[in-house]
Amino acid sequence: MFLIAGFCIIVVITVISIVRSKKPLKIILSEAKYELLYNAVGSKAVIQDYLMKSKNKTDLPLMTGKVAVITGGNRGIGKEVVKMFLKCDMTILIGCRNIQAAKSMIETFRKEGIKTGNADIYNLDISLIESIKLFAKEIKSKYYKINYVVNNAGIMFGPYIETKDGFESQFSTNYLGHFLLIHLLLPNIKAAGEKNDFSRIVNVSSCAHHIGDIKFEDINNRKQYIAGEAYAQSKLAQLLFSNYLNETMKKEKSFVQSHSVHPGVVNTELFDGTLLKNKAPWIPNLLFKTPKQGAIPIVYACVSKELEGKGGTYIHNCEIFETCQLAKSQELQEKLFTFTKDLLNILEFGN
Ligand SMILES: NC(=O)c1ccc[n+]([C@@H]2O[C@H](COP(=O)([O-])OP(=O)(O)OC[C@H]3O[C@@H](n4cnc5c(N)ncnc54)[C@H](OP(=O)(O)O)[C@@H]3O)[C@@H](O)[C@H]2O)c1
Ligand SMILES: *[C@@H]1O[C@H](CO)[C@@H](O)[C@H](O)[C@H]1NC(C)=O
Ligand SMILES: *[C@@H]1O[C@H](CO)[C@@H](O)[C@H](O)[C@H]1NC(C)=O
Ligand SMILES: CC(=O)N[C@H]1CO[C@H](CO)[C@@H](O)[C@@H]1O
User: Fold this and answer.
1) Residue 334 CA to chain centroid, in angstroms?
2) Which residues contact residue 210 at a Cβ distance below 8 angstroms, ignoring those fewer than 6 apart?
3) Considering only CA atoms, which of 119, 57, 117 is closest in space to residue 87?
4) What does the radius of gyration of the chain's CA atoms come to, in whole angstroms?
5) What is the atom index within ligand 4 of the atom nearest the CA of 296?
6) What is the pTM of this model?
7) Which end of the chain is less enclosed by CB atoms within 10 A, N or C?
8) Which pLDDT belongs to residue 3?
9) Strands (E), the chain
């Protein structure tokens, strides 16, 4: 009931705001298309979150000595992931832009009584090549083995902005930066993997990948920027890469597996500035997952024994789930991989 009412309200609000925005008709139509697609995909995901409620759980086993890297991690879903990793007694390397926020977050966890685990905080802006290189160098010099990497930092929608390196910001933050990070950390990730204890790379992707496509001829969406289109592209790109990487690791018999995770539709600041949060904030408050609930499938993807040897999969509410057909296309995976490598001037991936 709530869902249907919510959906109708969103559609009406959307139509009104788009028409009032006085943009060219072509843009209006594309924006309307993506708004409706997001509402459809989002509503379906909210319903799935509800139906799969009982599946959404993870153990927090003791994993003393394991080293995990997380990007972002100072707020939102990432913050809850850090908290659970601490409970598992891991060493967590947090790469974030807001060091102060991360420090006080850890202090708060300690005050709340979480005594286990270690947290090390580093400066990282995942949208900037220089910053990624510095971060990788710093942690590689201190930690020879890295067991888990959670590619969590992400942005959604927002206006067209290009980073200092000349890439559209969602593509750069959600996909490209993490591609480079994994390239740089791969030797250490491989070094940590063992036969029945694989290292794991976990990408926080999204159900939005279902409506994504890769626009090779205009990867930055410079010609026509529709925020929703760019977000979906970045999330599909992550998924393609995750699948590609698992296959590569399998072929070279490295003990590394990769997963993409849809955390659920989660009420975080990611939705700030969206129509939904501006006009009908009661909908996310009522229907969306909490950040803690969103963190559960991510932690599950890292620590679950059930997933050993089952990389290259997409996790939704702690179950292996179907992705869209596009994400499975090996041809597209390969094309995107080569394209991205060239974009970043990487000669040999992971070396
Ligand atoms: N919420 C959902 O419903 C949902 C659904 C599907 C997927 N996801 C994905 O889940 C992930 C986490 O989202 P969230 O909901 O937790 O969002 P959030 O509350 O907005 O948190 C985003 C995090 O990413 C960090 N970040 C953004 N840009 C960065 C940059 N250039 N360098 C370093 N860190 C950066 C932010 O750090 P600052 O504090 O420095 O900004 C923050 O820690 C994202 O990848 C998102 O796409 C979310
Ligand atoms: C996750 O996606 C990034 C690009 O966003 C990619 O570089 C990284 O290797 C991916 N890792 C896995 C295992 O999904
Ligand atoms: C991912 O790799 C692991 C082992 O490296 C393999 O067992 C698994 O089947 C792979 N996943 C897919 C979808 O091929
Ligand atoms: C919808 C949902 O997220 N359900 C459960 C997920 O897991 C947490 C923690 O175990 C529960 O509190 C939620 O009810």
Assistant:
1) 21
2) 41, 232, 323, 324
3) 117
4) 20
5) 7
6) 0.91
7) N
8) 66
9) 67-71, 91-96, 118-123, 148-151, 199-204, 256-262, 313-316, 319-321
d(CA 49, CA 293): 10
CATH number of the domain within which 296 lies = 3.40.50.720
Separation CA 59–CA 232 (nearest Å) = 31
- In a domain, residue 351? The reply is no
Please report whether residue 32 resides in a domain: yes
Residue with tokens 């290292």: 199
Give the total number of structural domains in the chain: 1
Encoding tokens for residue 59?
Answer: 């153990």
Side chain identity at 163, as an amino acid letter? Answer: T
Domain span holding position 80: 2-343
Task: List all residues whose CB is within 6 A of at least one atom of ligand 2.
Answer: 151, 175, 178-179, 182, 201, 203, 238, 241-242, 245, 258, 260
Burial classification of residue 295, based on how many CB atoms lie within 10 Å of its CB (0-12 exposed, 13-18 middle, 19 or more buried) = buried
CA quadruple 137, 139, 145, 151: dihedral sign:
negative
Instruction: Tokens 């679950």: give the residue.
Output: 304
Residue 132's nearest CA partner among 178, 69, 189 is 178
Q: What's the pLDDT at 1? A: 64
Of 226, 211, 94, 93, nearest to 160 (Cα)? 226
In a domain, 84, yes or no: yes
Asked whether residue 349 is assigned to any structural domain, the reply reads no
231 catalytic, yes or no? yes
Ligand 3 atom closest to Cα of residue 256: 5
Structure tokens at 123: 């400066």
**Amino acid letter for position 69:** V
Ligand 4 centroid to residue 26 C-alpha, Å: 42
Determine contact, residues 134/187, Cβ cutoff 8 Å. no
pLDDT of residue 2: 64
Is the CB of residue 166 less than 8 Å from the CB of residue 113? no
10-residue block means of pLDDT along the chain (351 residues)? Answer: 70 73 80 85 89 88 97 97 98 97 98 97 98 98 98 93 96 96 98 96 89 93 91 92 94 96 92 83 89 96 96 94 90 96 95 85
